[in-house]
Amino acid sequence: MEPYFDGVWFVRLVFQRSLAGTYLIAFIVALNQFPALLGEKGFLPVSEFIKSVPFRNSPSIFYFHYSDKLFYAVALAGIMLSVIAIFGLSELNGPWLSAGVWFVLWVLYLSIVNVGQTFYSFGWESMLLEAGFFACFLGPFRISAPLIPILILRWMLFRTELGAGLIKLRYDECWRDLTCLFYHYETQPMPNPLSWYFNLLPKFFQKSSVLFSHFVQVIVPFGLFAPKRIAAVSGGLIIFHQLWLVVSGNYSWLNWITIVLGITAFGDSVLAPVMHMSLPQASPRSAAYDGILYILLAVTIVLSIPPAVNLFSMNQLMNYNYNSLHLVNSYGAFGSITKKRYEIIIEGTEDIVLNDRTKWKEYEFKGKPGNIYRQPPQIAPYHLRLDWLMWFLPFSVNVTDRGVAVPGYEPWFLKFMQKLLEGDKKTLKLLRENPFKEAPPQYIRARFYLYKYTTWQEREKTGAWWKRNLIGEYLSPVKLSDLKGL
Predict the structure, then answer these.
(1) Coil, helix or strand for 469?
(2) What residue segments make up the domains of the chain, in order of their start?
């Protein structure tokens, strides 16, 4: 009789290497952006955060001391350990070395995320942490691969997919009438080079795509715990769906970490022929090792109760952490879709006196739309944190026929404006283009635009990817002295 579950030696091998690659990207992103956003002189300094939030609520090694030098050491250590795990150097000894490398990776990234505040509030941060923690228990390739952590990771994939599917059906009518993709390719956080083309696909195809998404996210996850052949088909469908999302938009490493989790749905009988390798002779696990795995399973079952209940709740939470260690969370994405794309465009001027002849120059971001003639870039799996936060800002703005009403400004945004007026080098590195090479501007402002994709005819005629209409002022012109002391 064919076994219910397949072997997972190759699954472990591919999963560990792929997850290590995702950690590498995450630490590189942190190295390049964290100091400007959250460092000693950042928008939301870590030193201020740890004064008001107790350690137990957000554990991090930075509670003992924070400096930009220490952060760089943490990020570089994370990069080094990620590379070690990618090449399997962490598995050249016993299981404790492998577990130690993954545990340190988890602790280092947990320390970053837990003080990252709004810049690290994305669901894929918790996904990376949860997957990294359970990777500690997979062991090196020298010993037989344990099934328990693989099944726990499948359970994580199940919660990710089903959570995303149910929250769509519950929270936005356009997911139920299959019309969300009429808008999503245009209004998603950061379109990529193909998003403009996906937006032009026929309406019947867009509806069919939504229907396929519902099937993959609501029905298919239950096959992850079916016999091995059905589980493999389920994993394949999930990975195919995620690859479709990869080519149609920039979602940081959300899709990639989901694909990595999708690997756990396969078995050695599927992966061995693909890898052109024979199954090696692995040493048996010790009784102590298996005992730890059973304890892990029991703890995971207990921690799974709140997220399992959440899946059946009509007030379902999206991307919610039930503990400060980011273990066994609730996931989901795009429960609602914006129908219009608003962009906040930052402008500065060298003029000391403002009048009708004032010449304003635009700052260009690396990822988010600005220049209408610039093709949307491919960013993912890299993550542009400032660009993503800029996408969220218009959600709090009241748009009327007479313009826009801004109820208030995020503290980080005002700090961002101050840094631009100061010509701060770390901040300017977060942008694609600084129009003020010689000296920082005298005044800065933020304008509120409605952006829409051009049509085939408009693009052939003008070369523009976007067209935009000015709606109003998001931030009236301010000078540096207006923002000092914030």
Answers:
(1) strand
(2) 9-311, 341-483
Here the tokens at position 43 are 């928008």
Confidence band of 1 (pLDDT split at 50, 70, 90): low
pTM for the full model?
0.95
Tokens of 406: 């801004």
Residue 50 DSSP class: H
Answer whether 219's CB lies under 8 Å from 166's CB.
Answer: no
Give the other-Cβ count within 10 Å of 424's Cβ: 18
Please state the rounded mean pLDDT for residues 283-310: 96
> In terms of Cα–Cα distance, which of 8, 226, 243, 224 is closest to 135?
8
Give the pair of three-digit tokens for residue 316: 């379902």
The count of other CB atoms within 10 Å of the CB of residue 297 is 14
Q: Which residue has the tokens 């005819």?
A: 457
CA distances from 393 to 5, 118, 413 (A): 47, 12, 9
**2: pLDDT strictly greater than 90:** no
3-state helix, strand, coil in the chain (%, to 5): 55, 10, 35
Q: Which residues of 139-165 are buried (b: 16+ CB within 10 A; e: fewer)?
A: bbbebbbbebbbbbbbbbbbbbbbbbb
The DSSP annotation for 401-461 comes to TTEEE-----HHHHHHHHHHHHT-HHHHTTEEE-S-SSS--SEEEEEEEEEEEPPHHHHHH
